[in-house]
Design a protein that fits this description.
15 helices, 456 residues, Spore Coat Polysaccharide Biosynthesis Protein SpsA, Chain A, signal-anchor, seven-stranded mixed β-sheet, three-stranded mixed β-sheet
Length: 456
């Protein structure tokens, strides 16, 4: 007879029912609490991962300021001293509220102001690493072979602390296990928190500017692609010669190979169709723009665009390089149309393969005559875009590695028209500013003695 059986053979149900009830209660408790605990741990792990990645976390004080939050909240995040008064917070709030009535030039002035209340992106510029040139290289999930070739040809030589840095830019949904291995090996990939679509190139381009001014106290920013070769050493030398302000901090430079009076493509289904631009502006031609294979903005200009976008939102259209020029239209810039930027939409820079009669072997790579003659000259090619194979990229890298760019202070003819000769008097300044007298103020590259600015 079991313990729950009565003497007359009937079963006692009370004890059994109470035991079942306790088991059921415990099961319900565990089924309700365990998912909560697991979810909490998962959220905590994701937060820790995001804070250690290239992307900016939502608690980053720079992001707080850029999104219009008060300076006081940003200071609470970065534990500023009590000296950061509420007056500064009020100034920052007023700035965010009145930016819509300011011109783009005024925004640039605010970005370069020494008043911390006028800084809407940087919280403490002194804490950022000083950098002369940042190179943002647009890439994608399936282009690991291109990135490897770029690193070997010129990318690794561009990683010089305090002088230059290069990052490949990918969208977050392009973070594959193979890409993650690249990050662990090289640490030179940054991710845009945006899904890949037809506007990805423009979003990545904007991210190049945002990443550069948020992570570095940068002088110049070069946007390029993973099928372009950058001749880093002479490029930096020429940018130094072009500087007109102390420390190269307010240069207002927009440099590249200029496309002039280009018509807006309106053919349905065409990859360059930009009906969005027509509908937004009513214009059928683009402003003069630097072609997208490689162009440079000075850090102050990039900072101005980032500040504008944080407060008012820039208009994004499918055509990246023309849209950047559209953003820059109202700003008084130094447009430098550099003839040594090969950024045309056509392959660079080799002769067609030649099959020798009676032989099955095709001749090895040969650079086009113009490229061969000028690659190591006093006025070398700086950007070579549309290199259509990693092998060709490495070939050019090896060729340039043999060059000797000794006289970095010599003015290349390509930039001579854009270097201002130091004026001896105010009258000379006024005379030089007259467009009718511009030609006579272009220095002779053999005799010019431009002001060389040494970076601190």
């Amino acid at each position: 007879m079991g313990s729950d059986d009565s003497p007359d053979g009937t079963v006692r149900r009370g004890h059994s029912d109470r035991s079942a009830s306790r088991v059921l209660s415990q099961h319900c408790f565990l089924s309700g609490v365990l998912p909560f605990i697991v979810g909490f741990l998962l959220v905590l792990s994701i937060f820790q991962f995001r804070s250690s990645s290239f992307r900016y976390g939502s608690s980053d004080p720079r992001r707080l300021l850029a999104s219009g939050d008060s300076l006081q909240r940003a200071c609470e995040t970065c534990k500023c001293p009590p000296s950061a008064s509420s007056a500064q917070a009020d100034l920052a709030s007023k700035l965010a509220g009145t930016l819509t009535s300011q011109t783009a030039a005024a925004v640039l002035d605010a970005a370069n102001s020494t008043d911390p209340a006028l800084q809407t992106v940087r919280v403490n510029e002194d804490s950022l690493e000083s950098l002369f040139l940042f190179v943002g290289i647009l890439s994608g999930r399936g282009y690991r072979h291109r990135r490897l070739a770029v690193r070997e040809a010129w990318g690794n030589r561009a990683q010089v602390p305090g002088i230059s840095a290069a990052r490949f830019i990918l969208s977050e949904d392009e973070r594959t296990p193979q890409v993650q291995k690249e990050i662990e090996q090289n640490g030179d990939i940054a991710f845009l928190d945006h899904k890949t679509n037809y506007k990805s190139i423009l979003y990545k381009t904007y991210f190049v500017l945002e990443y550069a001014v948020t992570n570095f106290d940068v002088r110049f920013i070069l946007k390029t692609d993973d099928d372009a070769f950058i001749n880093v050493v002479p490029l930096i030398s020429q940018l130094k010669l072009l500087c007109e302000t102390p420390g190269c901090k307010n240069e207002r430079v927009y440099m590249g190979r200029m496309a002039q009076r280009s018509e807006v493509m309106l053919q349905p289904g065409h990859k360059w169709n930009n009906e969005v631009y027509l509908n937004h502006t009513g214009l059928t031609t683009y402003p003069n723009y630097m072609m997208g294979g490689g162009y440079i903005l000075s850090g102050d200009v990039a900072m101005g665009l980032v500040n504008i976008h944080k407060t008012m939102s820039l208009k994004f259209t499918p055509i990246e390089d023309a849209t950047v020029a559209f953003w820059l239209m109202p700003i008084d810039l130094r447009h430098i149309n550099h003839p040594r930027f090969f950024t045309w939409a056509q392959p660079c820079c080799f002769k067609a393969p030649v099959r020798r009669e009676g032989q099955r072997i095709i001749t090895r790579f040969q650079l086009a005559d113009e490229m061969e003659q000028e690659l190591c000259s006093d006025d070398p090619w700086l950007v070579l875009h549309k290199i259509d194979s990693p092998t060709k990229m490495r070939f050019i890298g090896n060729r340039v590695a043999e060059c000797s760019f000794e006289d970095s202070d010599k003015v290349a003819p390509s930039i001579a028209p854009y270097i201002k000769r130091p004026a001896e008097t105010d009258e000379a300044d006024r005379h030089a500013s007259d467009p009718q007298n511009l030609a006579e103020n272009i220095p002779d590259p053999k005799t010019a003695q431009p002001k060389i600015v040494q970076l601190q």
